């Protein structure tokens, strides 16, 4: 057949009429990292089968890998238009293209979408930059429109400011976050999300009365909010009003029974009034809902030791250290536990580990340096220590 000139010519013509081998050669080239060759073969396959959405999506992928993000987004959009059955996969590819763009001079709607994508990827700094651009673009529009249009734009600005504040808060930039919440409240003093977020920062700094005044306004707008009632309850707890705290936390628990923070806080309040059985139930619920939180097991261990179950208390402390080996509070309370069990060597070892963890720990761990011999002081600090880790939703 190869020696027959007529048959050989027909074979060459047939090779140019079948798109699938070209597609396979393109896939092989892409796997081997030869992106230019892959693009060549995918484009040839598409030329023979212009309605094939898969070939278009492959061309979009290769363009994305080559750094042609805008072109990739356009091609992937065409692929969606041709065949919507591959929307899920193409949507993810389009998101990758969009978030890879360095140019943030987009419309506010696109910027908000980009910010949400960055948040899903845990890229909070890029999400914050996107929201900053939203606010800047809205401010520029504010200068050129009438009062009625400004009123229509305000909700978008409030949402962007609140989201930006939350991103700052997640990054540990508390002052910047509080500023954003304040600006959001200047647009809408009754915005529930901004009030709740600002109140949480005020509450964290120990100003419970001011935080409660903020929450009172929020409660009028969003009474059925578990996080709100959780925070109100912990404000009362900070003021030493345990009965009011339990009442508010029970309402939060009713509204959000699967929120582990609420169960954990209920355990803290019951532990503070020496209702150890109730505290045990709530701490157990908290660690079942969030089995990766080390302080939950440490709190459970403290309650178990009060209930006389020393064996399980020790297991709970070991689990807490396994989950959070850099938390000095856990070593601190475990050292006290071992001292009370007359295991002096273990107590000294844990005290040294606490000192090491304390030297490199986050400032929010309010643990006093102590001497292992001073058992009374250690025991008193232990109680304060287990209560100071209030988790605000």
TrEMBL record:
Instruction: Give the record's keywords alphabetically.
Output: Repeat, TPR repeat
Q: Which InterPro entries match?
A: HAT, TPR-like_helical_dom_sf, TPR_rpt
- Does Nuclease appear among the keywords? no
What PANTHER family does this protein's entry cite?
BARDET-BIEDL SYNDROME 4 PROTEIN (PTHR44186:SF1), PTHR44186
Q: Name one GO cellular component term.
A: ciliary basal body
Q: Which GO terms describe its biological process?
A: cilium assembly; protein localization to cilium; RNA processing
| Top-level taxonomy | Eukaryota, Metazoa, Ecdysozoa, Nematoda, Chromadorea
Q: What is this protein called?
A: TPR_REGION domain-containing protein
Q: Which organism is it from?
A: Enterobius vermicularis (Human pinworm)
In terms of Pfam families, this protein maps to:
TPR_16 (PF13432), TPR_8 (PF13181)
Q: Keyword Plastid on this protein?
A: no
